[in-house]
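Researcher: Please predict.
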Amino acid sequence: MIEKYYLFSLLDPEESALIEKRLFLKAYETGTMIFEEGEAADAFYIIQKGDVEIFRYIREKPRQTVMDLKAGDFFGEVGIIDSKGRFANAKAKTDVEVLVLLKSDFERILGEHELIRYKVYRSFITEMVTRLRRSDETFQKFFQDVLHRDQ
């Protein structure tokens, strides 16, 4: 089942089954905050249905969208990897269903299964590079807007 999600696409069926046993489904109604920036990160999420907005509050703009996510995307991984709390806010743009993996289960599985750890981290890194490139484009546009505003 979870092999269809990019994050777990490198796993074989036995590896997937270890993770699937720990996942649970959670639903959020449109407009509901899933988590807020700075909160302790105790889980990450894989969107099964619906759309999620990841955003931050930035000084000059009351709210800056970092990214919009859809079914198949995952989020909340940064906080469970670096243990520094949530990097941004996550809000349900539509009614959303997510698969949730608790940090404690994630750490246990990866600690006990080296090959799963390698495959999952490889997928994390690939996705983070893609998101970093997207963010760079967004920030370039933001800075261009600021420069043109001052002229």
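Model: The mean pLDDT is 88.
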